[in-house]
Structures are given as structure tokens and as C-alpha cells.
Amino acid sequence: MLRLFRVLARLRGCRHWTKITELSARLSSTKAAPRFRRMDYQDAVCTLNTLQTNASALEQVKRERGHPQLQLQAMRGFLQRAGLKVSASQGSTCAFTEQILRNYGFRTGFYSSPHLVQVRERIRINGQPIGKELFTKYFWQVYCRLEETKDAHGGSMPAYFRFLTILAFHIFLQEKVDLAVFEVGIGGAYDCTNIIRRPWVCGISSLGIDHTSILGDTIEKIAWQKGGIFKPGVPAFTVKQSDGPKMVLQERAEEIGCSLSVCPDLEEYQSEDSLRLGLAGHHQRSNASLALQLSHTWLQRHFLTVEFSGVSPAPAFQPSPAMIKGLAETEWPGRNQTLKHGPVTYFLDGAHTTRSMQACVHWELLRSRGPVVRVLLFNATGERDCGAMLKLLVPCLFDFAVFCPNITEAIATCNADQQNFNVSVENMLTRCLDNQQSWRVLNGQEEKPEAELLIGGGLPLVAERHRDTLVFPCILSALQWISQGRDSVLSDPNKCVIPVKPSINAKAALLREAVNIHVLITGSLHLVGGALKHLDPALNS
């Protein structure tokens, strides 16, 4: 089997894993076993990566699909006394909410997924990823406690995301945050973030089709899952939805016994000036409105006793200066983000559903105008309908479509934070080839190009016959070819330059001669994160 990087994780004698059932207070007093004392951040990340492929955990997931309550029962004991102030929603909404409440002077915790460059980005305090030392310290506290108690709890460890969720709760408790904003992982009802019995407020942003094998194959089934974060007597908010999911959310709210309010348009809020958002894209306006309602409700409930009941429109109000400032200052890398490096401008958006891709295309068409060479860099993972997303991108009239797997660079020292052990390299490259063929068909080039999987030195590079579509073995090789030495950040002599056949370089004449190059990087947040690792070196520190 072709390997572009070595597996860095070394267990150093560690045995199989166990469920987490201990309280955070007990974890904080746990001393690391002697053999773990000298382990650093990368050791922690490598050990965490082994949880991606734990056979026991995978079998447990299969069992829980038939009995989803097992998942909640396994974790509820650990956090039933946590009492954190949680808002559950989606990434951009959570980012707006956290920034607003931080502007009021509160010490905030923020848990999100996935990470872009380093895993510690998922756990933030006061808007910043926790430091490597803190991550390492708390990681081994949790890990060692599980190692000590595994015999009493079935001998299996929580899988990757569940472990990080437990770790986030533990860190927020130990670091004494005033509030924690949690982004749900997948769905809601049976997601491992959904274990706080009485959060302060809950929110659901605009719904789309995703994770259909877990959540269901219709928007109504997905809405039912999302509504599972509602809690009795806890106010809930959502944005304007289509009739089907709107009715399902209303029924869920009535069944669970909570209020559900629909957020007004952002234009309805009373402000002397139009509200400016730190995140680009028209779809962020509904996320911002939801964030205003979530933060406003948290402030009301935190300082006052406010009753919420029924299903009703959420009232517009006059945002405070802290709210206005929070919306304007919100940053959320990899979502409608623009980076200009000399003649090359990168548009990065982790859209990975048809709905989010529609918003991405609208954003791209508004910004990519004039005499420029347009390049698409695309990849998608999981069960995503790549053909549907690529079809939406056709009107952008790209001069080149480039495909690559979510491998940051094809060397053995590839960052452990961005390794995925669940999919083989062959499968990733095969998917890229399938995406390339889909793109050709969508653009009227139906003949299938001959592809060679290996070039000199053992690195795969495929599809050289047609200049408009190429597949590269990693993100760095794709970016280097697209930029043609015109991006000084990518021209760093310390970066490995992957050899490319002369015939492939000949296709890039248009890129070398262009006054400006616009590159849209989309289809996967993991792809965007891998690109940012190279395009924004500050994220590596």
C-alpha cells in the first residue's frame, strides 16, 4: 500500500482503552504515570490519533446506532455536576456569540470542530486556542485516569471526538471559565456534546443535508436530530427555515417543553448604523442574528429571571456597543476568508454541503471579477455528494480545476495534528480522480483521461493530458503548482518542492503570465486547514 507519510503515533507500552466515567475534579488530582512524564504535545496528539481507528470504539458506535441512549449514559455521569453555561449551535454562530460575550468581560470557553491546523484550536479560552503546555497537561490527566480505571469499565476508550469533548469540559472546569459555547458535532440528539441537562440557551442555525447515514436522508429527519438539543424550560432559537424542518422543530420544542423563537432579519435590529460583520458572506447575517439572540438571552438569564414559553418570533432589539463591536471583530478562519499574497489571492471556505456551497459560490462570484486567472482547488470527504457541489461551482468559470487529498505534504514529518488514519491514501487519491472526472463531465469534456498513478521518486501525479484539470498528491504540491513561484510564502526554501514533469509545468504558462490569480479552496474544512498551514505560517505557532 502506497504511503506518503509514516504513522507517527507510538504508544510506548500503552494498552487498550476504557470509557470515561470519572468527574473532572478527580481527574485534576490524577498524577501522570512515570512513563508519561516526559511526553510533549506531539506525543499527546499522536496518542489521540490512535483513537481514530480503535476497533472497540467502532463496534461500540455500531451498537449505539441501534440504542443511541447508550452514548449519553456512558458520558452523563462524568459531567452531571458540571453546570456549564452552554449555547449549542454551528461554528460561525458560536464564534459571533463567543466574541460578543467576551466583549462584556467574561472569561469564555469555546469548543468547536474540526480544527484547521492544530487540534488545540478546538478548545479555546478567551478566543485563543489553549497553549500546547495546557493541552498536554490536561490530555494526560484524562488519559492516565482512563488507563488506571479501564478494567472496571469494559476496556474501551471513547473515540476521537468523544475524548476531545470530555477533555474540553475538563479544561473549562479547571480553567474556571464564566461560560462555555459548544458547537454540536453531528446532529444533536445523540451527539456527545448533548449531555448538559440544563444549558442556559440553545440555538439551531440554517439546516442542510449532511451526514445522512447518521442523521437521516431528508431535511425533516435531520431537523428532528437537531432539535434533540432542546431542553425542558430552556429557551431555544433558530433562524428562518423552510416549512418542513420548521414544523419538525416546533413539534420537538412542544414535545420537550421549551420555547422556540425564530430570529428576525439582521436589518430589523435597531442600530444607528448598519451592523458590520467580521465574517464575509450574506449567509452570515442569519448567523449573526442568531448570535445576538443567544448572547442577549444568556445575559438576561444570567443576571435576571426571565420566563420563556411557546413558539414565537424573537423580538428585535437595540444591540449594545459590546454586541456591535463583537459582530464586527469576529474572526473564524477558513470560512469565507481571503488571503492576498502578492498577485495570488486565496479565497478559503470550508463549505462541504450543497447549501453551504451555494453560499460559497455567491461569495466567490461577487469577489472574483475582472481579468484574472481563476483556479479551483477542491476536495471532499465522507459521504458528501461531490458531484452536486461541483455542479454548483461550474458557473464560476474556472480556468483550472485542481484536486488533491487532505494530506498537507507528502513527507514523513507531516504534522500529526492533521493526520487521518481512517482512510487509506489510495482511497483518497481515487476520490480525487473521481472528482476530476465529474468536473470534466460537468464541463462537457466526457472522455476519461488516461491517468498514471506514479511519477519519478514514487510520488503520484495524475491526469496530465488536459490542461484544465489536474490531481496532485498533497496540498503543498497543488499550491506550489498553482502559484508558480509567485507566492513568497510558498517559496520558502525550507519547504519541500515536489518534482513535476515538464509537460505538467507547460500547462501553467497562463498562471505564470497572469497579472492576478484567484484561487478558491473549498469542499472540506480539512482541505482548507491544510492549505492554511502553508499559507498562514502563524497558525503553526
| Oligomerization status of the protein chains | single chain
Radius of gyration (Å): 24 Å
Q: Indicate the overall shape.
A: globular
Terminal CA distance reads 33 Å
Count of distinct strands: 15
Decide which structural class fits the backbone.
alpha/beta
Q: Write the CATH architecture name of the largest domain.
A: 3-Layer(aba) Sandwich
What characterizes the major β-sheet?
Answer: 6 strands, mixed
Low-confidence stretches: 1-27, 30-37, 54-59, 64-89, 450-466
| Side-by-side strand order of the widest sheet | 10-11-15-12-13-14
Give the helix level as a range of percent: 25-40%
CATH superfamily of the largest domain: Mur-like, catalytic domain
Average pLDDT across residues?
79
> What is the CATH level 1 assignment of the largest domain?
Alpha Beta
Number of domains: 2
Number of DSSP helical runs = 19
CATH fold field value of the largest domain: UDP-N-acetylmuramoyl-L-alanine:D-glutamate ligase
Strand content: 5-15%
Main location: cytoplasm
Subcellular location: Cytoplasm; Mitochondrion inner membrane; Mitochondrion matrix
InterPro entries: Folylpolyglutamate_synth (IPR001645), Folylpolyglutamate_synth_CS (IPR018109), Folylpolyglutamate_synth_euk (IPR023600), Mur-like_cat_sf (IPR036565), Mur_ligase_C_dom_sf (IPR036615)
Pathway: Cofactor biosynthesis; tetrahydrofolylpolyglutamate biosynthesis
